[in-house]
Amino acid sequence: MDKKVFAGMLIGAGALIAVFVFINSLQNQPGKYDAFATCLKDKGAIFYGAFWCPHCQNQKKMFGSSERLLPYVECSTPDGKNQLTICREKNIQGYPAWEFKDGTRKSGEIPLEELSQKTSCPLPKN
């Protein structure tokens, strides 16, 4: 193998590793709403949604990188044509849907302030 080709391969591999390490470090950074999302889960709130639902995506975006901590239940089958049993049994009619520990529900994109009031989970200060 030519030394230049080998050196190019080493540089390329090193660059890929550097990108992977950088991306991984970003994913492990705490998000602004980590404590809030964790509190929602601890207080028994459940967020039902579907991967194809634009309002569900908007709801998740409100949490930024803290989305990964949401008490989220995917309701759609992978083909997007049916509803999973867990959501049928809960009689989830539309998305997004939030169910709270007291059994009440709210549908649609719920502002974080309203989720905070409903669960007594404090929002971070801006």
CATH architectural arrangement of the largest domain: 3-Layer(aba) Sandwich
* Helix proportion: 40-55%
N to C succession of SSEs: HHEHEHEEH
CATH topology grouping of the largest domain: Glutaredoxin
What is the terminal separation in angstroms? 57 Å
Lay out the secondary structure.
Elements lengths: L2 H25 L6 H9 L3 E4 L4 H8 L10 E3 L10 H5 L7 E3 L5 E3 L4 H8 L7
Structure description:
This protein has 126 residues and is an alpha+beta fold. The protein has two domains: 1-30; 34-119, 3-Layer(aba) Sandwich (Glutaredoxin), CATH 3.40.30.10. Helices cover 44% and strands 10% of the residues. It is built from five helices and four strands; from the N terminus they run ααβαβαββα. The protein has a four-stranded mixed sheet, with no helix packed on it. α3 links the parallel β1 and β2. The N and C termini lie far apart (57 Å). The relative contact order is 0.17. Residues 18-22 have low confidence and may be disordered.
